[in-house]
Structure formats: structure tokens, C-alpha cells
Here is the input.
Amino acid sequence: MNNEENRNFYKLAIIHSNFRDKLASIKTEPGNIFHYTSAAGLEGILKGNIWFSDIKYLNDSSECDYIYTLIPRCLRDLDLNKDFRKILKSINKYQSDKNFYVASFSKNPDCLELWNYYTKTTNGVGYNIEFSKNCLFMINVYSIQGAIIYSQDIQIELLKEILCQYNEFYLQNNQILKKDHSKKEVFIMNLMTLLELYNLFYKDSAFYNEQEYRVVIYNPDDIPAQTNLIEETLRHRIFNGLFIPYLEIPFNKSNIKSIKISPNNENRLYENGVKSLLI
Here is the structure.
């Protein structure tokens, strides 16, 4: 790349980081968060680590592709460059080189749907851990966290802002992107990584009662130290014969504010057992 091209693609990185920061700022909300889990999950957390699982190994395809179902509506409403439109119509065929690791919580302290999910075990017992979000982690880790956006109007409004900015960049660098396939790939991967990040905070309104709150860890290009941290904390667990990558991130145990046992259980032994774990 010559100097002018370098400056232009630096602008692309700025566009990306600005939208990333915007997502982080609009998702920050006060109040504690809650993690519903099994007995095994509770035991693991009380050892001082929160697990962040690679999202590709957990979600069904409909959730992974959710944001791409909104693009056709944006295309109807926006006046975009025809070549950029072609990219958008096929962008879900590309695969980002980023791995996103997610830990899920809820803003709902007593969610029936989540209780039901974690009481499907043989003994029918689930647990709900209340966390304070302040200074949650014991190590310096870059994360984006916040409540899931369930309103499709807000989802589309944010998506349109992204597409308009990237369309403007495409228009300004049309000739370069057309003649140099590698630069076009950089442009597409940059946009796709941003869309995948936003998709992690988008969900269909049918899941609104869960009031999900997510913490996402990944390795942005402008924070190289994050890659080393991910490599150091990467582990694998086995589920149904599948090796699932996850990060084991230490947290401040003082951030645990309460632990509740599923409301369908009145046996005092379960409460006493949890208290003994906390000693």
C-alpha cells in the first residue's frame, strides 16, 4: 500500500473501533446481574473462574445468522452503492477470523424460563448467582458487555448507521477495492467482524423475558495484548463428544452478592450445602 492507501485503511479501522465503542457505551447499564446455572456450574464458579465459551460452538445457526436477516430490510430503505449491495447480499458466506467468547447472565433475578432450563436435571435443582459488575475480573481483559437488544427497530437503526458509514468508505475507495482483491477482503472482514460483534447483542423479541446480559471477549486488531491473554487462558471441555474452546477468566469472588436455589426446592440440605462451599 502507498501512503494514501494506508491512511484510507486506517480510517476503516477508526470506523470499526468507533462503532465498537458505541456498542459498548449504549449497552452499559446500572444494577447487578444474575447467572443461572447447575450445581456443577456453581461449584466451578466458586473456585474463582468464569468460563467464556466460543459462541460458534454453542449457538444454533438461526441465532448466529440473526443480524443477516435484517440486512434485506436495510437494503430496501437505504440508497447504497450497487457493488457494496452485492457484498452485503453475500456477506454471510464469508467467515470471520475472530473467535468470540461469551458468558451469559440475566438482568432478571427470578426468570421462570431460566429456572425451568436449569431444573431439568435428575434432582431438579438449579442455582442463581447474583454478581456486581464493578471490577468483576482480576486480570486486565478487554471485554464488551451489556444487555441484549430485543427491539428490532433499534437493531435496524444501529445496523443502518453501520452500513451507511461502510458504504461511504466503499465509495471513497471504490477503485482500489475493485482492482485489489486482498484489500477488498480486508474491507469485508472488517465489516463482518463488526456485524458479528453486534449480532452477539441482538436477539429476537420472543426471548425478551430472559433479559439476557452478555460479556464478550475477543481479540480486536488494535489491542494485540488481548491475543496473548486469550492464548494463555484458552481451555477445552467436552460436550456430547465435541471439544468446545473456552476461556477461564479469574474474577473477584467478593462480587458475588447472593446465591439462590431454585424456588421449587424447599430442602434445607441444599441451602446448607451451598453455605458450606462458601466457608
